[in-house]
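Figure S7 source data.
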Amino acid sequence: MRRMTILLSTLNARYTHASLGLRYLLANMGPLAAQTSIHEFVIGAKTADLVERILAHQPRIVGFGVYIWNVEETTRIVAMLKRVAPHVTIVLGGPEVSYETGEQEIVKLADYVVTGWGDVTFPKLCGEILNGPKPLMKVHAGVQPPMAEVTLPYALYSDEDIAHRTLYVEASRGCPFKCEFCLSSLDKTAWPFPLDAFLEQMEGLHARGARLFKFVDRTFNLNVKTSLRIMQFFLDKLEANPDDPVYAHFELVPDHLPEALKEFIARFPPGALQFEIGIQSFNPEVQALVSRRQDNAKAADNIRWLCEQSQAHLHVDLIAGLPGEDVASFARGFDQLVKLGAQEIQFGILKRLRGTPIIRHTGPFAMVYDPYPPYTVLATNLIDFATMQRLVRFARYWDLVANSGRFANTTRVLLGEAPFDNFMAFSDWIYSRTDATHRIALEKLAKLVQEWLQLRGMGRLDAAALVASDYAGKLDTPAQAPAVAAPARQARHLAA
Ligand code: SF4
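Tokens for the predicted iron/sulfur cluster complex:
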């Protein structure tokens, strides 16, 4: 085992999620880079095994990327490391420890914390830990350098990363909008990386075999000139070699789709573009409460245009449990989205992310949050706990049946003219029959769907034929939620 002075580590939600944050740190370590390496793990492993693997490198410093999905396990790792190897200096970074820092167990256990951007501050802190003078403060506010001074990390994606993992990339950091449930609302604006240098790195990744690029920019279509150049990059690749497809995933604000952008989008072949579009709520009063600026009519027009005139795959986000939103209001938004035709509707439940301004609504709207990650809302003054639980199950079954794409024909019939109400009735019934929302074998799920259709008045043979038209030949695989490339959007905005 090679000895490493500085170990950069994190627990990813899945193996396929390569950590962009750690690669940024390594790329910006300067003279310390040769003594630094990345060791990523996946949540769910035994704490002692991970501690053993970390210590095998005999590090002097271990830096952990702490996120909403790994904070509990990372806390256990840090606690154990501090017991068995108290001489190792632990430095924390990442969004989960960047806010409400002082009150966290993991922070009490660690030696230092870097809040916010770590590109400059983490290497500087490591230099001081190794060479003195010993840093006096425990918490170090990350310095934000000019974007041109941040070394881009894409060369650090290994060949194995390129072959087997999602490649996260970003042409800009930050967001100018202020949606109060979102950590990006704390950014002052969006800061672009120098575009030529960024595209050069994308060229390098493509030349090495990368074919799926997942942009984590909060609002890809904010600066249309930049969006067009990035799209041109991918169009050039597709047109130069149509038999070698390349895929790009972008997050869009829904009410900003100028004609020039539409013209480009329309030129992409089926599936090459994937768009994630945050609607969150169609209720103007709720939007005002959470400071979300959105032109609903324009947003709906643009989603309709994308569904009808482009060949992009759309994934549209809604959040249940926002202040001021009851079930009927959420249902209206849901039904509107179903009718607009988005291929996937990501139905998320509100989370109170550390540092987000949504906390100001806690008293007035009786918002009750789970005190443990991911801090999901449990009840509001308009949605009681039992109803929230029904919504949570709706979201889970929606993933299994609708978003998975496994029951496309059946879903259309199941939803009928009142998608939310009909699916809620199905969700309540399937839960009463199975007592489970996970590990339902696909064959069993198909039988349940068929039984439900019969209960709703469809003839047995018709119901069987409809379900069979969807799932024939797919019996051997367990029913899964659709493969998402990252944790749900609200949390994923922590990732880079
Ligand atoms: S939800 Fe989207 S638009 Fe709103 S602050 Fe977050 S990233 Fe920006």
